[in-house]
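OP here, attaching both records as promised.
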Amino acid sequence: MSITPEQFARIKSSLPVERGNVSIRQLNFLNAILYVLENGCKWRRLPREYGNWHTLYTRMNRWSKAGVLARVFAHLQQAQIIAVRLTVLSLDSTTVKVPPDGAGARKKTGRQPSARVAAGGPPNCIWLPQLTGAR
């Protein structure tokens, strides 16, 4: 999935003006974004033909925060050049270790008060007060 120069000419009005020493042209930049979207690869794994991955990522991040990417992709879809819907998905792989008795194993001993409470220190658990009835 990539944009041709003719298709790029149709959406050029929705892009910001390039300023300064620009090493990666906007057409190549948009094609790099489409490559990442299509293949789901990391920015570091972009082929060299698109340019320096860090430069591309920095520009993408800047355009995203400024709302330029949303405007460009809306314009691309209105011009019927591409049909892409951008959604964000975040997966968390954090794990929490639970002691065996927390997972349903039988406890070997009876309940004993915390030594910290007996010593006057803060308890080892979180206490959440709940309202059980009206005053």
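Record two, same layout:
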Amino acid sequence: MSQMDKLIYAVLCGKRDTSIKFADIRRLMSFLGFRERVRGDHFIYTKNGVDEILNLQPNGTDAKPYQVKQIRKIIVKYGLGGNVDV
């Protein structure tokens, strides 16, 4: 299992929402094909074919748990997880 597969699994399983690094979330969003726009400490992600716009902010070095949950919903809704099964 690749590092990215492990990260997708961590997001999808929902058990580590409080301990996922924001830098890893940024890598994941890029890997999934989202475009990043930065305004101050707001990282705004868009992707063709995805209706939602994700506005993420770091919580220190970690991602905010509710935002990890938002990402999980997007991955599941649009089938972006690839071959990773939870």
